[in-house]
Amino acid sequence: MAGRFAPSPTSDLHLGNLRTALLAWLFARSTGRELLVRIEDLDQVRVAAASGLATRQLADLAALGIDHDGPVVRQSQRLDLYAEALAALDTYECYCSRREILESAQAPHDEHHRPYPGTCRDLTEAERAARRAVRPAALRVRAGGVTATGIDELYGPVSGAVDDFVVRRGDGTYAYNLAVVVDDGLQGVDQVVRGDDLLSSVPRQAWLAGQLGFAPPTYAHVPLAVGPDGRRLAKRDGAVTLSDLAAAGVTAEQVLARIAASLDLAEERESVSTAILLERFDPANLPRQPWVVA
Ligand code: GLU
What we know:
Helix content: 25-40%
Largest sheet: 5 strands, parallel
Distance between the termini: 37 Å
Number of strands: 12
Oligomer: single chain
Radius of gyration: 20 Å
Number of domains: 2
Bound molecules: glutamic acid
């Protein structure tokens, strides 16, 4: 039994990411699970632009007292596993716009991504040959709009139609939805705690787990951190990473207390450790509104 935290190494973890990591740790440890850390570095362009980030992210987790089990796994080292899984699926080539396909390598972080209308589903071989000459094909899995359901500890059953989503981009990069399901399945992850901007991925991922012979995990989608303007927390909101805060004289312990206070697990200025928070943690009392970082 294991939970996991799976950052993409494209920017430093901010208070919202750190809070999600703490929650993944609390959910896992309070249920006797291991906590695995997986670096989701499949998008080599974005990762290369931000080199060294994974190391900093791991250091930040350690600084807060969020420990983990086993070796840290990197998706870029697991391409054979994704290829093998892909081969077991019923897929077809898709030649639709670059933008649409690019979006698929990353977690969507958006409830509104549109279902694929099936444009390339039933092309003839001649049509495929013609389109392939214009643009390298992505691969989509044939799900055909079937309804699938996953169970979320906070939201209950999450159901939705599963469209023919991208499992490999035209540039050969495996898509987020494929990699995440393969990894969670192979790593024995049965509890997925992450930001609630990924709630809409539940039907697809639960369905895909079933297709690949894995039991879908239980999910817990937790509220995001937002800036004073209500938008998702970001650099523009000032000192929001551990290194920014350290430069402003705020220690990691104070950051932990601040995050804990936002979860109603401590007073703002209390001296706490993750071990103390674990004793106090009860998912039923988790605040369900976004955390406004002011
Ligand atoms: N790597 C994704 C991110 O950074 C998280 C995906 C997941 O937890 O399923 O947002």
